[in-house]
Automatic annotation (TrEMBL):
InterPro entries in the record: ATPase_dyneun-rel_AAA, CbbQ/NirQ/NorQ/GpvN, CbbQ_C, P-loop_NTPase
Homology family: Belongs to the CbbQ/NirQ/NorQ/GpvN family.
Keyword ATP-binding: yes
Residue ranges of domain ATPase dynein-related AAA in the record: 37-171
Lineage: Bacteria, Pseudomonadati, Pseudomonadota, Gammaproteobacteria, Oceanospirillales
GO molecular function annotation: ATP binding; ATP hydrolysis activity
Residue span, CbbQ/NirQ/NorQ C-terminal domain: 184-267
Protein name: Nitric oxide reductase NorQ protein
Keywords noted in UniProt: ATP-binding, Nucleotide-binding
Pfam families tied to this protein: AAA_5, CbbQ_C
Organism: Halomonas shengliensis
């Protein structure tokens, strides 16, 4: 039996830090008030999940985050009968809870889930806003304060793992990318406690490493990894050691590629 990895964020949680780089916050609010599902596209670690957490807290709505994977089934989202205390009881999945209670259900990397997941989502992503539960015989109508948000990384997915046009066209969509250098510097400094000057050097290094995407690297260095690196440096770890642990080892196992990355780090920090 496959289980969804779910993180629940309460409505009264402190608003997570997020630095807006465009009209994404306004777009999210409009989609929410107009009861429209939202699709976020962008590279790994560019801030999609933090953005959703920020907006859920800003709107004062509970957030149900599901990290999708290739064993995730529709039953993991909707629910199943489980044996509890000698009795068989129906237990709602995170999607069903969000529909019953109201809130935002966020499916991270939705294309990683099995194909039957999108079938369940379709009735929720048109004007019906319905969730049929075949096993209980229920037909749940989503309340006004329910919102469905999904995300994926279009640059990383294989052709066999992509959203069908019939699914994509059910969503309002926004593209995300890494923040502009000044904004990324401020994000890294705030999240790590490292001084902005050294964060600027890290952001410049990230630009050099991201230019290697598609050549030596499958993915460019994420803002998340920059925060990890800055956090280690702020804690007293030598720059080269922190950079190897966060900007080299996670990106490649190839010794030649790692050597090239370390050369870029040496050129930046000396």
């Amino acid at each position: 039996m496959s289980l969804a990895t779910v993180a629940a964020q309460s409505a009264d949680q402190e608003i997570p830090y997020y630095e807006s780089v465009g009209n994404e916050c306004a777009m999210f609010e409009h989609a929410y008030t107009q009861r429209l599902p939202l699709l976020l596209k962008g590279p790994t670690g560019c801030g999609k999940t933090r953005f959703v957490s920020h907006m859920a807290a800003k709107l004062g709505k509970p957030l149900f985050t599901v990290s999708c994977h290739d064993d995730l089934t529709a039953a993991d989202l909707t629910g199943r009968y489980l044996l509890q205390g000698g009795e068989t009881r129906w237990v709602d999945g995170p999607l069903t809870r969000a529909v019953r209670e109201g809130g935002i259900c966020y499916l991270d990397e939705v294309v990683e889930a099995r194909k039957d997941v999108t079938v369940v989502l379709h009735p929720l992503t048109d004007d019906r806003r319905l969730l049929p539960l075949e096993r209980t015989g229920e037909l749940l109508e989503a309340p006004d304060d329910f919102m469905l948000v999904v995300s994926y990384n279009p640059g990383y997915q294989h052709i066999l793992k992509s959203l069908k046009p019939s699914t994509r066209q059910r969503f309002v969509a926004m593209s995300f990318d890494f923040p502009p250098p000044r904004v990324e510097r401020d994000i890294v400094a705030r999240e790590s406690g490292l001084d902005p000057e050294r964060c600027s050097a890290l952001v410049n290094l990230a630009a050099s490493l991201r230019a290697m995407k598609g050549q030596d690297l499958e993915e460019g260095v994420s803002t998340r990894l920059l925060v990890y690196c800055a956090t280690l440096i702020a804690a007293g770890m030598p720059i080269r050691e922190a950079a190897r642990a966060t900007l080299v080892e996670p990106l490649s196992d190839d010794a030649d590629v790692q050597e090239g990355l370390m050369e870029a780090i040496q050129a930046t920090f000396g």
